[in-house]
Amino acid sequence: MSTYGDKIRLTVFGESHGAGIGCVLENVTSGFEIDTDKILLQMARRAPGKDKTATPRLEKDFPIIKSGILDGVTTGAPIACFIENTNTRSGDYSNILDKPRPGHADYTAYVKYNGKNDIRGGGHFSGRLTAPIVFAGAVVRQILEQKGIKIAAHIASIGNVEDERFNPVNVPDELIEKLSSESFALIDETKEDAMRGEVEKARLDLDSIGGTVECVIKGMPVGVGGPLFDGIEGRISSAVFGIPAVKGIEFGAGFESSKLRGSENNDSFAFENGKVITTTNNCGGILGGISDGMPIVFRAAFKPTPSIAREQNTVNLGSGENTTLSVKGRHDPCIVPRAVSVVEAAAALAVFDMVI
Amino acid sequence: MSTYGDKIRLTVFGESHGAGIGCVLENVTSGFEIDTDKILLQMARRAPGKDKTATPRLEKDFPIIKSGILDGVTTGAPIACFIENTNTRSGDYSNILDKPRPGHADYTAYVKYNGKNDIRGGGHFSGRLTAPIVFAGAVVRQILEQKGIKIAAHIASIGNVEDERFNPVNVPDELIEKLSSESFALIDETKEDAMRGEVEKARLDLDSIGGTVECVIKGMPVGVGGPLFDGIEGRISSAVFGIPAVKGIEFGAGFESSKLRGSENNDSFAFENGKVITTTNNCGGILGGISDGMPIVFRAAFKPTPSIAREQNTVNLGSGENTTLSVKGRHDPCIVPRAVSVVEAAAALAVFDMVI
Amino acid sequence: MSTYGDKIRLTVFGESHGAGIGCVLENVTSGFEIDTDKILLQMARRAPGKDKTATPRLEKDFPIIKSGILDGVTTGAPIACFIENTNTRSGDYSNILDKPRPGHADYTAYVKYNGKNDIRGGGHFSGRLTAPIVFAGAVVRQILEQKGIKIAAHIASIGNVEDERFNPVNVPDELIEKLSSESFALIDETKEDAMRGEVEKARLDLDSIGGTVECVIKGMPVGVGGPLFDGIEGRISSAVFGIPAVKGIEFGAGFESSKLRGSENNDSFAFENGKVITTTNNCGGILGGISDGMPIVFRAAFKPTPSIAREQNTVNLGSGENTTLSVKGRHDPCIVPRAVSVVEAAAALAVFDMVI
Amino acid sequence: MSTYGDKIRLTVFGESHGAGIGCVLENVTSGFEIDTDKILLQMARRAPGKDKTATPRLEKDFPIIKSGILDGVTTGAPIACFIENTNTRSGDYSNILDKPRPGHADYTAYVKYNGKNDIRGGGHFSGRLTAPIVFAGAVVRQILEQKGIKIAAHIASIGNVEDERFNPVNVPDELIEKLSSESFALIDETKEDAMRGEVEKARLDLDSIGGTVECVIKGMPVGVGGPLFDGIEGRISSAVFGIPAVKGIEFGAGFESSKLRGSENNDSFAFENGKVITTTNNCGGILGGISDGMPIVFRAAFKPTPSIAREQNTVNLGSGENTTLSVKGRHDPCIVPRAVSVVEAAAALAVFDMVI
């Protein structure tokens, strides 16, 4: 189901070119003052058209709160949010039913739903469905901040151009502040030109390009999470794999740790100002599925967006013949800059679900 | 909770040095004949002491079925399995409470459980808890096989020594058959010596070494899974991150796809013998969270086992001072060969949960 | 959480006097043609103002489908429904915060939500929240009907005036048809006058009156449900107790069976036209938590609506003193006739959750 | 599934005449000292053979704790309990497969499990499965007691003989203490003879007799529970309907309230010693699904146990003919006295699930 959470529950609904999209977020504690500007900021970071790398199709994502927030304060009742669709052009997608687009859910959804799903603009599979996730994340991260838990992410790479990584034992508050409000979030801002260059090259080639997003959760109390299927890694990955296009996730040293010796990978404990810390943080702040008080760090891999104008090989499901297809329209050649806010939102929802 | 599943439910219990460990597996259809030898084979693949790379501490893992299977046939009632602990030496672990072992859950569990958790041998956090997971996986994969779904994994790497990868568009049945019954499962068997050499070097250095496991699920029907939080990636990763020491997971081209162009990463559709296939399989058999009928392929990264005899820096929680520790006893320097069967089991449970 | 279901998931949101109310219904199979008129009929049965016994406050409940249904056919994506509130008079309720109304959730919600819940018109606790439940029930019962499962309920009693009960071994289809479309559903229509008389007397006394609703589910396949916590009784009661004002539920002979001997209460099996039936149906179609193929019959007890214009004793939470209160406005003296459609909807949701 | 709980999770396994029965109870906080004698007392209250009204078949129910409790203290890991079956006579039940016993799950389970379920002694449907529920309840009620929440039940009726009811606004601690440790729990002990007479008459008639159990939960904090499907009534009823033979449940005035006027049924608020109370308690301590701080009171209806030695009509599923059957062996003519402890346990589990 299109639902996330254990103690909270986020339900996401809507289709790209239907009446609208939205979500219901349950079990948010009553009495928290929600700053609407902070919600709009996060939604703007995700929305296309804010940045020159993004799709020219302008979406206006105004979240209309239908319940659960009264006079700016959470009531404890489910928070329902609705975002109207303004773009309902259906014509561009008329041949999808017959010719599934490579890399998209067209074929698999066709089989799962017996051809009855809404195919316009990807329907319920559209990346547009991340807007309600960002909304919900923007609500809960405000409550997390009151608990001293801060979340930020950045573009760790686009194609082969890499940003610096977080120093996992020391993530300054100012960096978190800065990254979590930017639309092209980088630790090393000098990489922006090279990254934009990669995207621009892909665009000129009628192509797209993938990337990775690195996320940090700072201020997590020690002792959250649990063994086996209750571990933080599983909880966060369930949320993050809910974002379309994510194909991998790693915590701390992640895949790199598979090449290391125990003596290299183990993080030594030490007292610092009377508090237990680890002097390195290869475990990404998680030991035995439980937070150790250090920053939680993970990276998510985004495949290149499958919508490309180039001709591709596909099948005609109607005629049963092989054929070709080029996806019309103008496409966003790289969703990674916009995905930063979505990863932060997913992380916020996972953390909130564990700490409330 | 130590529970996995949505339609099924697997509950794992026990502590490493308590009376025993076990599991309850609910919602397995009635009337399936279960081959006990196949269960024992899988449990033997996981058990230490079967292979010369493994820990010399010999564990006898006899799963005693307490309910749910009568005369070798599932009854539809919960399947309960109990494995007695024969090793209950507690002496080796006496100083853990004061000095948490780096890389272990000692410190985080101490905080979470207020120092009341069973610390002997890692307690509920012990890798030994994967034995019931393998048991449960060995039950459900037999039912999956009757549905034409086969699962196998192999040691994709130990340290820097890599095995071949699966050809994701063509995984022969014989390969699956072979890998899923071996205790040192490799596609390219010539890599065995180099891998064992890595492990032996680590052992001689009183150290340990990590690795990766690659897993394939063949025969998955098209149309299983769902959008957003219901995607196959999230469902499998929830199961796989339930295995202690897993720090990363990637599907199909995974992190590599983040460096690719859309035109490189998209998998073209084609008809082959009247059936829709993809000519490449960078998506790992999953589009929009839903199976496309091609093999599902994923890789999991295992950190090096944190138990090493070398001296390491840690803290004394009692005295509040920094100190050192070397974990006594003989340790398994590389759990990756044994982890192969656990990854297969986790994949089997995730798949079973989606297809029943 | 305001959520029901295991295989499906119904999420209900909204406050009585906020922007609106609604629901999201997940996991409805794709490809079912939904008859909007049947939805509107059920919602009209629940809506006040349709019947002269009901509240004069006219509510217009137009369910606006935001997603999940395209051209009248389910798409498989979450079905989101929104109902705008037209009545947002808040003035009448200004003194609730200080003086909790007896029998209402004012006091308990005040404590649970730290006084931050939306108190206008009962907020999220309003009986108005049953409208989305009826909507969702009206969707799934159409799919159930295609599977041969039909549901109907009737006013079993108002005060001391009782309708006939269902003959639990033989519920004619025509009766189900008739009851499930009426706004004052009775098996024995001659009881209508007496029942309306009870309601009218209560109204004239500035009072209200309770009642019971009896519901039948016909055509349930044999073998649905399960032992212990998976039994049909528990699944249906979870849904039915989700309806505000329900304080009791009984299946088959229910509380009466507690007075019987086993020889009286046991339902004999017999073959009828080659099919196994029971010659009586004291078990209400459920044995060991599992359906036996006979009609499932249950009764729900509704307390009298707590909104009455009479003066009642209460407390002033602000001043800490005992005080009195009379609930202003015109009240529906008996919600039971309208509750019939809500009980049917709850039953439909519970059954759908078990059979899909 | 045979599972209960939201924050906790209780999984019950086993068959009446298999190797044994048991349960796993997850998410019990660490560090609670568990008094084994209190567990054994509760299990003895449930076990047959303790009281002369009970079945002569002597069961020895020794709960063996396999994990989760170390040196008498909860560790935070899942608590696993196993109870060996000593009675494995299978011969008595040989004809059940062909001739389903009226009132039992034989027929419905036969259909659900395709005839593959363990039919010996009722298998997983046996009342014996309530033993692990009592075990789990006996664990959590000790933790509840430390929070000031006490639970007791009594035999409210057997056949037509009724005990007094709780005074719902004032349940003395001594009464709770007394009832919750008795094997034939009555408020008015003078009713014991008449009740035992009813049972004896049923026994002499080769018959059985039903009854009701009334349960009180005292000390519940105000503000627990929630609206709609999160209400206390639904949560408790899910647990109580998990007990075999329960066919009805009512809270507070329950079905009686359906005959009342609002002015009679509403419970007035008043201050008493600076605390808000209600002067009556028809709502059973629950308003809007949320606790109001008054005792929570509910009654559960038990049908007469279906095992009777009298000849009954049934079918021969093999031959397709109507036939007769008398259930051999000696039967417990009334399970209600023993059911008292099971109802208390179910209530304790439901409450624990809500307050932790």
Characterize the structure shown.
The structure is a homotetramer of 356-residue chains. The first copy, chain A, is an alpha+beta fold. Chain A contains 9 helices and 18 strands. Chain A has one domain (3-355): Chorismate synthase AroC (Chorismate synthase, AroC fold), CATH 3.60.150. The two termini of chain A are 23 Å apart. Helices cover 26% and strands 24% of the residues of chain A. Chains in contact: A-B, A-C, B-C, B-D, C-D. Chains A and B meet through strand 1, helix 2, helix 6, strand 11 and helix 7 of A and strand 1, helix 2, helix 6, strand 11 and helix 7 of B. Strand 11 (246-251) of chain C pairs antiparallel with strand 11 of chain D.
Question: Characteristics of this structure?
Answer:
homotetramer; about 350 residues; alpha+beta; Chorismate synthase, AroC fold; five-stranded antiparallel beta sheet; 9 helices; 18 strands
Please render the helix and strand layout as text.
Four copies of one chain form a homotetramer.
Chain A: E1 3-4, E2 9-14, E3 20-26, H1 36-46, E4 64-67, E5 69-70, E6 73-74, E7 79-84, H2 106-112, H3 130-146, E8 150-158, E9 161-162, H4 173-179, H5 192-204, E10 211-218, H6 232-240, E11 246-251, H7 254-257, H8 262-265, E12 269-272, E13 275-278, E14 286-287, E15 290-291, E16 296-302, E17 311-316, E18 321-326, H9 336-355
Helix pairs in contact in A: 1-3, 1-9, 3-9, 6-9
Multimeric status of the protein: homotetramer
The total beta strand count of chain A reads: 18
CATH topology of chain A: Chorismate synthase, AroC fold
Integer average pLDDT of chain A: 93
Biggest interface and residues each: A-B, 103 and 103 residues
Q: What about the largest sheet of chain A?
A: 5 strands, antiparallel
Count of DSSP-assigned helices of chain A: 9
Q: N- to C-terminal separation of chain A?
A: 23 Å
Coarse morphology of chain A: globular
Output the CATH homologous superfamily of chain A: Chorismate synthase AroC
The helical percent of chain A reads: 25-40%
Number of domains of chain A: 1
